[in-house]
Amino acid sequence: MTEPTTDQSVLNRIQELVSHEHALQHKEALSEEDRARLRHVQVELDQCWDLLRQRRALRTVGQDPDRAQVRPAEIVEKYEQ
């Protein structure tokens, strides 16, 4: 069984991903594997931010934040900034 999702666990994951993203971005040259990993990290970051927003929105309207779900990359990547 996996650990329950909380706002703090999502924020912790965001921090991990941002650190990894920065490490990749500061490399002298990126290999194809590095570029693929960077893209994966960026998508996962978008998914985490979306999940956190969902949790907060559900809580704001008095609903259970645990109803929030990670949305597929195809959905979160189409959001406008």
TrEMBL record:
Question: Region Disordered: start and end of each range?
Answer: 61-81
A Pfam family that the UniProt record links to this protein: DUF2630
Q: Which domain of life is it from?
A: Bacteria
* Ranges annotated as biased composition (Basic and acidic residues): 64-81
Name the InterPro entries on file: Uncharacterised_Rv0898c
Supply the name of the protein.
Answer: DUF2630 domain-containing protein
Species whose genome carries this gene: Nitrospira moscoviensis
